[in-house]
Write a structure and sequence with these properties.
This protein is an alpha+beta fold. The chain contains eight helices and six strands; from the N terminus they run ααααββααββααββ. Helix 4 packs across helix 7.
Length: about 300
């Protein structure tokens, strides 16, 4: 099997600096224009083909509300959540409180940033071809990225790439934030976040279809609630199933937790030379205020 640790220390991006405009991109723009010109609530609720295979606003809000009520770690705050599709298009944004001010307003965009990150840096079996990639793909939660992006880490600098599109993040009236007509819906948000709360979404067959991001509390609580949201939505099909190998992640590869492959890892010890602590796996996350619960999260599904 491909050594994942080696993968992250030797990988170099193979990206062309040229900008390619495809027919699909033109279609996406046309669809976005149709949303703007028609019945906003109805069109955004189902999002056409761009989000047809993902939960709608109501499903996300119900899952977030249930997950937030279950989790009592951290500050026990209300939360924001965002779902993006595989292309990074925002499909739904919701909050768990009684109004948009009942949870940190700044966490709305952070939740979208986390969803984008987990989707952008997770893979499925389609990534395995011509001698490259792993048979089951590779899942990276935003919690797995903290140590890797520190100075000297194998992914240092990742957090400075793919900035948030502020014209999408802060568009429209604030009264629409966290509703079915949130102005981010139907647009690519961008952004890279490197602490807990973002997870890739896997349907049956272990195919990545997008990401979910949760924000509003400590990053450890964000991760736990995000994990529960993904489980409640039934989008955590990552365990081995028949001929399908399990989708690996840092927790299954380096922390001995095959039932929670992209779970948060607490393996950072103090650096005797000062500065950032040392992570045994290279994918560790700091502990938080009232850290608890990650070891008892629901296992991923086949």
């Amino acid at each position: 099997m491909l050594n994942a640790r080696k993968l992250f220390t030797t990988w170099k991006p193979r990206v062309s600096p040229r900008l390619y405009v495809s027919a699909g991109a033109v279609i996406l723009v046309a669809v976005a224009g149709a949303f703007a010109g028609g019945s906003t609530t109805q069109n955004i609720e189902d999002q056409g083909s761009a989000c047809a295979n993902l939960p709608n606003f109501s499903a996300l809000k119900n899952a977030l509300t249930a997950a937030t009520a279950t989790e009592t770690s951290g500050l026990n705050n209300q939360m924001w959540a965002t779902i993006v599709n595989r292309d990074g298009v925002v499909c739904a944004v919701a909050f768990s409180g009684v109004n948009r001010g009942a949870q940190w307003p700044g966490s709305r965009v952070i939740s979208a940033q986390k969803a984008n990150t987990a989707n952008a840096f997770s893979l499925d079996a389609s990534s395995n071809s011509n001698g490259s990639g792993q048979p089951g793909g590779l899942a990276l939660s935003t919690a797995n990225l903290y140590s890797a992006v520190q100075p000297g880490g194998s992914l240092y600098g990742l957090q400075h790439s793919n900035p948030v599109d502020t014209s999408v993040a802060y568009a429209g009236p604030s009264s629409s934030y966290g509703t079915v007509s949130d102005p981010m819906v139907g647009h690519k948000i961008g952004g890279v976040n490197v602490f807990g709360g973002g997870l890739a979404l896997y349907v049956k067959g272990h195919q990545v279809v997008g990401g979910v991001g949760v924000s509003g509390d400590t990053s450890c609580a964000d991760h736990n609630i995000g994990w529960r949201v993904r489980n409640l939505l039934g989008l955590d099909h990552m365990a081995a199933s028949g001929p399908l190998p399990a989708v690996p992640g840092p927790a299954s590869l380096f922390a001995g937790d095959p039932t929670h492959p992209d779970n948060i890892i607490f393996d950072i010890t103090a650096n005797p030379n000062g500065g950032t602590g040392n992570s045994t796996s290279g994918f560790g996350h700091p502990t938080c205020l009232n850290t608890s619960g990650s070891a008892t999260l629901p296992p991923v599904q086949p």
